[in-house]
Amino acid sequence: MMKCCSIILDSKYVIKAKEKKVKINKVLFVICFIPILCSLTGCSKKADESVVIAHYGDDTLFVKIQEMENRDGLNEEEYEALALQYMIFASKAEIWDAVLLMKERLEHLHKRFPKNALVLAYYGSVVGLNAIYDENVTNKIKYADDSNALTDTAVAMNDTNPTIRLVRAHTSYEMPDFFDRADIAREDYDFLISCMSDKSCNLPDNQIAVVFHNRAELLRREGEIEKAISYFEKVSDFAPESDIAEKSKIAAEALE
Q1: Which of 87, 112, 150, 152 is the most exposed place for a label (fewest CB within 10 A)?
Q2: Rounded to a whole number, what is the distance in angstroms from the first to the last CA of the chain?
Q3: What are the tens digits of pLDDT across the range 167-205?
Q4: What's 199's DSSP letter?
Q5: For 54-95, what is each residue's pLDDT tens digit?
């Protein structure tokens, strides 16, 4: 690439030394310099929807999303439901274009409903998923930082909504230690456990099971072994036949 560019530059660039001006061919700038700049500073990739359709054309959830998008006259609550499907699809996606497409869809919804904290939380969560796929370190850090900022803003907008706290908890829990989000995950999981205990909030059993498992794992890392074991054991109360219940059982036995 560099050799090709240097040859083109020698023959096509006009340098006026006295006036210190350089006439740049825009096409050559794109060909030669943009890839170099992207490798150094990072460039945002756009989703290729045709790739997603080719890969997921018959996928049940993707078909459901398309059907929801094609409905006329959706209200804000229905758009919240659509945003949730975007986040679920992105979390299960196997290709980066699918995650990017859901991020773009959620960004559009966030712009349409800027005061909707739930949509913002879903959007922030999916932004963070892109760090898994992008190989550029600068982009990885930006995706993670943006994700944290967006989910924090969502909680600040509505800190009593259990779904928003759940989304931020899981997003923070999955962040590498570098981003120092364990305290945030701990805070949100404790909030959820407390509100479920006093019945001021309600979550599906399978989600409660994940809350107890992840909080137990954080307790294990903190050295609070007895409490970690008790939380691992609670998982089977909510999802007895699940994979996470089996995983929690093994984790508890390893600590005893």
Answers
A1: 112
A2: 59
A3: 999 999 999 999 999 999 999 999 999 999 998 998 999
A4: T
A5: 999 999 999 999 999 999 999 999 999 999 999 999 999 999
The neighbour count for residue 60, using CB atoms within 10 Å, is 8
Judged against a pLDDT cut of 80, whether residue 223 lies above it is answered with yes
Convert 1-21 to b/e letters by CB count within 10 Å (16 or more is b): eeeebeeeeeeeeeeeeeeee
Q: 């498992």: which residue's tokens?
A: 213
CA 251 – CA 210 distance, rounded (Å): 14
Mapped onto helix, strand or coil, the DSSP state of residue 24 is coil
Q: Is domain 45-203 given the CATH code 1.25.40 in the classification?
A: yes
What is the structure's pLDDT at 107? 97
Closest alpha carbon to 128 in 100, 155, 159, 161? 100
| DSSP SS3 for 203 | coil
Gap between the Cα atoms of 251 and 192, Å rounded: 22
CA 51, CA 151: separation in Å to the nearest integer? 29
Q: Calculate helix-pair angle for 205-222, 182-197, nearest 10 degrees.
A: 130
What the block records as the tokens of 79 is: 């758009």
Q: What residue ranges do the domains of the chain occupy?
A: 1-41, 45-203
N residues, the chain = 256
Under DSSP, the state recorded for 158 is -
pTM (predicted TM-score):
0.82
Coil, helix or strand at residue 16: strand
